Amino acid sequence: MTDLSTYQSSSTDWRKQLKINDHRTFFVIAAFIMIYAAVGMVFDLYIHPFPPEAPITDNIIALLTFQVTPIVTLIISGVAAISILVSYAFYDKIVLLGTEYKEITPTSTTSLEEKQLYNVVEELQLAAGLRYMPKVFIIEAPYMNAFASGYSEKSALIAITRGLMQKLNRSELQAVMAHELSHIRHHDIKLTMAASIMTNILIIAIDIAFRGILYSGMSSSRGRSSNDNREGGGNGNALVIVIIVLRFVLPILTMLLMLFLSRSREYMADAGAVELMRDNSPLANALLTIENDHKIHNEQYAEIYQNTAHENVRQAAYIFDPTQAGFSTKHAFSNMFSTHPTVEKRLKALGFKK
Predict the structure, then answer these.
(1) Catalytic annotation present for 53
(2) Residue 88: alpha-carbon gap to chain centroid
(3) Could you tell me which residue, 135 or 268, shows the higher pLDDT?
(4) How many CB atoms lie within 10 A of CB 208?
């Protein structure tokens, strides 16, 4: 078992780390917007009956200036907006799907541990300068994990498993709650939710386009003319190739951007937690305790994670990614890659190295 005594502590410029991660976050969102616009443009170029001899640059200008209505781009944007609104309206139910949980309030606490948890969050909320107290939930599970969610500071929630609440001492519990409150303070809970929705919609859209091309190809082979812009001509053929390539490249690209975003936000929240605690040791100890606990109870936790529905919804939000313990959550496509930096790298960022 690893403990913090095997690491050397050094000073770290936390404010510099926050600025670095802010830049990374803006880069990821800008990349998503560019991909979104590019995919919509490709679809519109493919479906509109532009003259085959027209330069593709002229067609792009026509779409950008609304001389021709970019129908697909507008539809994708509308679906994304509706999906985001629905997710924001039911965010708490969505992120807690499949779990047994209870909300903790000053009047609903039934034990000293629950009261201490609420008091810790309340104290740190004031220290963080947040105007609203987030909702606090306990998930009835023995594994050690926690996450924050919501679409604004006012709507934010923090959820913690009973296992984590019971196995950490007060300073370590404070550090974990400071980490989750930092997610709220940095507004990345809203960012991650929106980026996840945009990713799913893009992948669905490109899959529909790919299937449409396959169907068009089969129709052509049965005798349908293929001289129009969508199935013939240099521009049409080029767009078909682009859509086929996007079908395989886009899921990988968006997943890598999501992973980059998730890892950046974890470093940022770790730095924010240390800023609130004025000490880097409690969070470092908590991360090591959580990792060691997952290793010790690997088989038990693996079964619980895999048998809990919708764990993939929470995976990127957890303070500790379960896949780093050597097992995966149920039906999670992103299980191929960890959404978090390793505990070793996080400790190094916190100022501890072996």
Answers:
(1) no
(2) 15
(3) 135
(4) 11
Contact status, residue 189 vs residue 149, Cβ threshold 8 Å: yes
∠ CA(236), CA(241), CA(247), 5° rounding? 125
pLDDT in tens, 196-224: 777 777 777 777 777 776 666 555 555 54
Q: Are 14 and 298 in contact (CB under 8 A)?
A: no
Q: How far apart are CA 141 and CA 147, in angstroms?
A: 14
- Whole-angstrom Cα distance, residue 345 to residue 336? 19
Alpha-carbon distance of 277 to 53, in angstroms, equals 65
CA–CA distance, 157 with 189 (Å, rounded to integer): 10
Largest Cα–Cα separation, the chain: 76
| Residue 212 vs residue 59, higher pLDDT | 59
Non-local (6+) Cβ contacts of 269 within 8 A are: 179, 180, 182, 183, 186, 188
Helices marked H in the chain — which ranges? 14-47, 56-64, 71-89, 91-95, 112-127, 162-167, 170-185, 188-221, 233-277, 281-296, 298-307, 311-315, 343-350
CA separation for the pair 247, 242 (Å, rounded):
9
Question: And the tokens for 132?
Answer: 């609203």
| Active-site residue identified among 180, 231, 275, 311 | 180
Please choose, from the candidates 262, 273, 255, the residue with its C-alpha nearest in 3D space to the C-alpha of residue 316: 262
Statement: the pTM of the whole predicted model exceeds 0.85? no
